[in-house]
């Protein structure tokens, strides 16, 4: 278990007695977001020109008026140009031509957030902004959907525009949700929590973020290309039938999939290999367990999505027939590949939320985490079982009727390890002394919301009941209760809890309370009626519905607008607390025993002056003669950083 | 207050509220739960939903009572003793074993119950694909006769009625193989009759959701998705597409009727006669139809006889005149 970074040029500098610079000011010609955008535009132009040059004379392209080859190559070269422009390829290209790469040092000042930083804390904060931007745009699309559904007939958007808004909303939100915790909090906190100075592969970490942003732009590029009408599930043959916007969907999934695989692989290797001395598996924080389980899912499930997207692109570009039934392919192939990724994806979104709850509960109940080992085992159990449930999405598809009892069983079995998180939470709260600060309020809301999401999931897993509730607003309400009611509330809990460590500023409590109560109340008022709407027969993704459902739909829409407003309160709180009226955060404002809180605020460049020796798990609250969590060693002067922690 | 009192209070509250809620739901809400009781499948789906709800309510109420109790009693604002740390607060073998056992028993019961209901109710109205594993009596025979063109149906005969549902962007049409294979946009069914829906598509994936009938089956091109139901009440029902199928997915719905057997027979014979000229232009009745080379809109052909891989003579001869 080593945390020593042995890059040759730094070793050489050290041998010569010269300390390498930790930070530097950016040069005029250095690479940043601007050069990345220029690279993307130039790359797209070259790719599109190349595609047109090599394929525009083919009969099927001339006849259809669509050149998917040019579209695909344009996006492909655009992403390559983006990565070149941001500097992601500097190191490997230098190595490729036999040169010694330049030393990668942290840039000072704000501009580092617009650059290819290999510092896990910078990447974590980049992810915070990235996922909030994703969420904001996806949320605006949700407002548009609810506006259209104010009336039982089409009234604001055309059916064409509406279905594209629905599709874009689903895709953007799902892709955002896969990274909403792993990206910001996973990257920022995991090294701090396990006593490491860095991630295992800092360049891969930076790559995962900038590819994530590229994927975001690729998915949004569907709109100028005419959008796509398939929803986030992209079912074939509708996918095959759709216009050029579908290329953005397929390629966007592939690009984001690359980022997810990179992030998962990096985080898993970091947790396994970069734990500080004494950080045994029984002392690993529960949040880290959840991130490890998630990283395993990201690494193992996402390749299926990537392959599915590539098959779709091949169908559109070089006329293969993976999903074209009448030419020997099968639409079931897409459905199976998509959901083989898609259901583990649900737990990619849920598990980190459980981890956040488990991390916050002991701090605010002032009690040890109850049934820690059961909680960790539950996360591993969920991640394993999640690979064996995907066909419950296909109960009515006509495929494998004889397998339905098996998939009904596996789906219902997964509620056992999922229920462990309730055992952990309720046991920890038992006879506690609970401080209902903002993070704890959001955790309580998570337990309330996710319970409804989880229980209604059992209804969906029951094949006979599934006949009535599949494909309707019932399932829509269910997954919003699990993903938004669970994960998003957990993310908010995590932000209110850890932002003081990440930014050195306390979030305003009063504004935070307004945010919490509006979000909690109007989340439930928005989505609970959708269970009833679904039971009364309204399918998903429709712009028309029965006149007698207008009251419920309007109630849901108006609640959704207030729910959207609650996010504006949150953004206002961010701006207020960080810029307008900043209040300096103490090093450990919540009296947490977590290792991440034992280092200074703001976190030093190398996290810890000396690699800590972990002595106990971080949950010894209210314990007489509790052992110290870690031996952090004597502090060294802040201007004397050690070589070993330099970001690589 | 010792530990026993907390648990006793919560348990008493939980039992009372759960029993009251379950009884109220079962007797006052349950009979009105969708999809109603128009068919045996709808009735069984409603029954299953109600059973699950009666089990789910105590779970929900239990956790809500616990959370509420936590907020009221163990809030830091109210003072009281400091929490207990150490090993005693970290684990409780009895609580853990009880939790895992209870959740496992409930889950295994639900899986077993769902499986029994699925099998006993012939797929519970869900699409079983081209090779159903849980067919009602007489269905297989009626299907074979329908494909051979020898199927019959008459009032009060107890015969199974096969109906083909053909989905395309963005409408449903229906063929009645026991009445010469005519095709219509109206879905009319006889009461007290077992219906076999054979659901297919001419273009993209749709889903045939006959809401009040308790039937939902995806319509896939080149696949015959079979679902069963037995009508028990007369009335109107709505049919909606529940799988996103493109721009006008939201407008892909129509209505069907369950009528008396005699009324159905009259309607079917009249429609067969009225549509006879059009029926002659249709391809021979088959479970699926292959879209033509230009996609779905141009026409369709009997599966297994003509495909895009058929010889040019056969394929070309079957091309629509337009």
The CATH architecture category of the largest domain in chain B equals Sandwich
Please write the string of helix (H) and strand (E) elements of chain A.
HEHHHHEHHHHHHHHHHHHHHHHEE
Give the tally of structural domains of chain B.
2
**Whole-angstrom Rg of chain A:** 25 Å
Structure, described:
The complex is a heterodimer of chains A (648) and B (322). By secondary structure, chain A is mainly α. Chain A has 2 domains: 30-99, no CATH class; 118-580, Cytochrome c oxidase-like, subunit I domain (Cytochrome C Oxidase, Chain A, Up-down Bundle), CATH 1.20.210. In chain A, 62% of the residues lie in helices and 1% in strands. Chain A has 21 helices and 4 strands. In chain A, the strands form 2 sheets. Chain A has a two-stranded parallel sheet. In chain A, strands 3-4 form a two-stranded antiparallel ribbon. In chain A, α6 (120-148) packs antiparallel against α8 and α17 (438-461) runs antiparallel to α19. The longest helix of chain A has 35 residues, at 331-365. Chain A is globular, with a radius of gyration of 25 Å. Chain B is of the alpha+beta class. Chain B has 2 domains: 3-75 and 92-120; 139-283, Sandwich (Immunoglobulin-like), CATH 2.60.40.420. Chain B contains 8 helices and 12 strands. In chain B, the strands form 3 sheets. Chain B has a 5-stranded mixed β-sheet. In chain B, a hairpin with a 2-residue loop joins β1 (161-168) and β2. In chain B, α1 (3-29) packs antiparallel against α2 and α2 runs antiparallel to α4. Residues 293-304 and 315-322 of chain B have low confidence and may be disordered. Chains A and B meet through α7, α13, α14, α15 and α16 of A and α2, α4, β7 and β9 of B.
Short description:
Chain A is mostly helical and about 650 residues long.
Salient structural properties:
heterodimer, A: mainly alpha, 2 domains, 4 strands, disordered C terminus, B: 322 residues, alpha+beta, Immunoglobulin-like, 5-stranded mixed beta sheet, 8 helices, elongated
